[in-house]
Design brief:
- The longest helix has 18 residues.
- Strands 3, 4, 5, 6, 7 and 8 form a six-stranded mixed β-sheet that branches.
- With 200 residues, this protein is of the alpha+beta class.
């Protein structure tokens, strides 16, 4: 299968409000954001099977518990930085990821197996990869379901064949802030502060 790299990064486009000019020649990014986003995309490219397992998991979870993810527009327009899907995002940092970034920038046709070999051999710290599930209740005016949350949390803890990393899981009601693309509010269930899920 041909290598396919996908990631999201944020660029800041200055606007001269007084003269009503979009200053495209002055576009910039925050230090390290594009590099971290690239690393996340390369990580996903290296672990194709594990990503397939994650996608199968979220598809099953959404059907079983009547949950949805962010819509495509929210992911594309205000999703953030890293590898983004409607149900989860992945961000990567650390020296090992700097190494695979350099390898990719030297050779855009680098093989996914070579990337995986470097990552496997590095035995990077799972804290260097954050995998965050964000799910929403499918029905309007429905509070997040704590029983469903606990069951899914346990499934994430015990699942095999997932990516190495540090996992978080958040469950929201059906409302999302359209300006920021976030569903986090007072009724969001997030027990990760107590016990983050680590996958070795």
């Amino acid at each position: 299968m041909k290598n396919f790299l996908m990631y999201h990064a944020v660029a800041i486009v200055p606007i001269d409000v007084k003269n009503k000019i979009i200053e495209t020649d002055k576009v910039f990014t925050q230090a390290g954001q594009v590099e971290d986003a690239l690393a996340s995309g390369l990580y996903v490219m290296a672990y194709e099977k594990e990503i397939e397992n994650l996608n199968n998991f979220v598809n099953q979870m959404s059907k079983e518990y009547s949950l949805v993810g962010k819509n495509k527009e929210a992911v594309q327009n205000v999703g953030g930085t890293g590898f983004l899907t409607p149900f989860y995002f992945i961000s990567s940092i650390g020296e090992t990821f700097d190494k695979i970034n350099s390898l990719y920038l030297e050779n855009r046709n680098v093989d996914r197996k070579e990337l995986r070999s470097i990552l496997d051999e590095s035995k990077f710290n799972p804290d260097d990869v954050n995998i965050v599930f964000n799910v929403f209740m499918k029905e309007d005016n429905t509070e997040p379901d704590e029983k469903a949350y606990d069951e899914i949390y346990k499934e994430i803890e015990t699942a095999e064949g997932f990516l190495r990393g540090s996992y978080s899981f958040l469950m929201h009601d059906n409302l999302i802030n359209s300006k920021y693309g976030s569903g986090s509010k007072g009724n969001t269930i997030d027990k990760n502060a107590v016990n983050e899920i680590m996958k070795e």
